[in-house]
């Protein structure tokens, strides 16, 4: 199983993700970092009508933000644009 598949499996299962893993998932699905403000990282996607704001909780991603990203990927039926 590739690193990409493991990340996606963790996302879908609701497991805890590191902040770096959440950033990698966003980029895998075509989001790009638009700007940062303090600890907030704002990502945008051409098919998504609203930006995604994430911020770290120590080294980890905040669980509610992981759920938001997962739900957004499903809602907009986004597909991976690249493999790692």
Structure description:
By secondary structure, this protein is of the alpha+beta class. The chain has one domain (3-76): 2-Layer Sandwich (Metal Transport, Frataxin, Chain A). The chain contains 3 helices and 5 strands, in the order ααβββββα. The strands form 2 sheets. Strands 1-2-3 form a 3-stranded antiparallel β-sheet. A two-stranded antiparallel ribbon has the order 4-5. α1 (3-13) crosses α2 (19-28). 17% of the residues are buried.
Keywords:
single chain, 84 residues, alpha+beta, Metal Transport, Frataxin, Chain A, 3-stranded antiparallel beta sheet, two-stranded antiparallel sheet, 3 helices, 5 strands, 21% strand, hydrolase activity
What topology emerges from the helices and strands here?
Layout lengths: L2 H11 L5 H10 L3 E6 L2 E5 L7 E3 L1 E2 L2 E2 L1 H13 L9
Antiparallel strand pairs: 1-2, 2-3, 4-5
GO molecular function: endonuclease activity; hydrolase activity; mRNA binding
Keywords: Endonuclease, Hydrolase, Nuclease, RNA-binding, Stress response, Toxin-antitoxin system
InterPro entries: HicA_mRNA_interferase, HicA_sf
**How many structural domains does the protein architecture include?**
1
User: Which radius of gyration do the C-alpha atoms yield?
Assistant: 12 Å
Order of helices and strands: HHEEEEEH
Order of strands side by side in the largest beta sheet? 1-2-3
Looking at CATH, which topology would you report? Metal Transport, Frataxin, Chain A
CATH superfamily: Hypothetical protein
Main sheet, how many strands, which sense, barrel?
A: 3 strands, antiparallel
CATH C-level category: Alpha Beta
Percent range for β-strand residues: 15-25%
Helicity level, as a percent range? Answer: 40-55%
Keywords: Endonuclease, Hydrolase, Nuclease, RNA-binding, Stress response, Toxin-antitoxin system
GO molecular function: endonuclease activity; hydrolase activity; mRNA binding
InterPro entries: HicA_mRNA_interferase (IPR012933), HicA_sf (IPR038570)
Family: Belongs to the HicA mRNA interferase family.
């Amino acid at each position: 199983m590739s690193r990409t598949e493991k990340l996606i499996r963790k996302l879908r299962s609701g497991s805890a993700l590191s902040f770096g893993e959440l950033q990698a998932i966003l980029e895998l699905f075509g989001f790009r970092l638009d700007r940062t403000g303090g600890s907030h990282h704002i990502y945008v996607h051409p098919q998504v009508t609203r930006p995604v704001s994430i911020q770290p909780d120590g080294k980890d991603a905040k669980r509610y933000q992981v759920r938001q990203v997962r739900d957004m990927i499903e809602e907009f039926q986004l597909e991976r644009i690249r493999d790692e």
